[in-house]
Amino acid sequence: MFSGAFVAATLLPGGSEVLLAALINDSTDTWLALVVAATVGNTLGSITSYYLGYAGRFAKTPEALSTGRYRHSIALVQRYGCWSLLLAWAPVIGDLLCLLAGWVKLPVIKSTVMIFIGKGLRYLLIAAMALHWL
Length: 134
Description:
There is one protein chain. This protein is mainly α. It has one domain. Helix content is 74%, strand content 0%. It has helices spanning 2-9, 16-26, 31-59, 62-66, 71-80, 93-103, 108-132. Residues 27-128 form the VTT domain. The chain crosses the membrane at residues 31-52, 80-103, 109-131.
């Protein structure tokens, strides 16, 4: 579960939600351990994206991105700061939010906490639905 969630949180495609539901279906008594493993793995994957964004600052000048097609997204991350990372679980935009958080150098500890909360709530909801439909 951990590795599936980690890969799904990076820029690679993955379906950790389906994996979590299937594993809960196989063994309902381990649901909490599966949720914790998924949350930690997915959070660490997002932090990897954060650091890729941070490292990207060395490859391109900040001015190059602030005037390009990412200008609006960067402005949103700068406006809402770490709070925007509560949506890091969202498909498509979640990876971009983490990448841009690193790009604009949001505080890593606060960013990690917000990512962890958002992803943890998502996995708890998926676990609850999986347990309900058994």
